[in-house]
Amino acid sequence: MELCRSLALLTGSLGLVSILIALSTDFWFVAAGPSFSLHSGLWPKFGTEVPGYIRVTQSLSILATLWGLLSVIFLIMSCIPSLSIRGHPFLASSIMAFAAAISAVVAMVVYTSERWNQPQHSQIQTFFSWSFYLGWVSAVLWLCTGSLSLAAHCGRPRPGYDTL
Fold first, then answer.
1. Which family does it belong to (predicted)?
2. What is the CATH number of domain 2-25+50-120+131-155?
């Protein structure tokens, strides 16, 4: 149980850090031409029209961040006996981590599908960049966090259970 809790806390924290870096950086998409290179992120400059798929990706990524933060908070509270809540902190952490993973996956699928279907120009090469990939990494890390938290929940001793 301790190993699962520690690994869940590690993967949850890494997922939180990776989504925060992805949200705050501007290297989601790169376009390179013969004499220029441009990059863009989820936060376009002021005064420009923001497409709907960017708004959806922003909203779901922020929601995933909040779910992931709650998951990590429940895991931290389970490590400190004086802060430990009654009930099932591992189960709550697992539910929050899976909600974060689902939100992140939907956000990334929306962004990927919309960017993938945009028209291409013959002299401009476009590709996804490292901030985009960090978004996907955070979704995978939260799936691991949810699984490890669920394993910790299932592996903990039940009240009234006597070991032989």
1. Belongs to the PMP-22/EMP/MP20 family.
2. 1.20.120
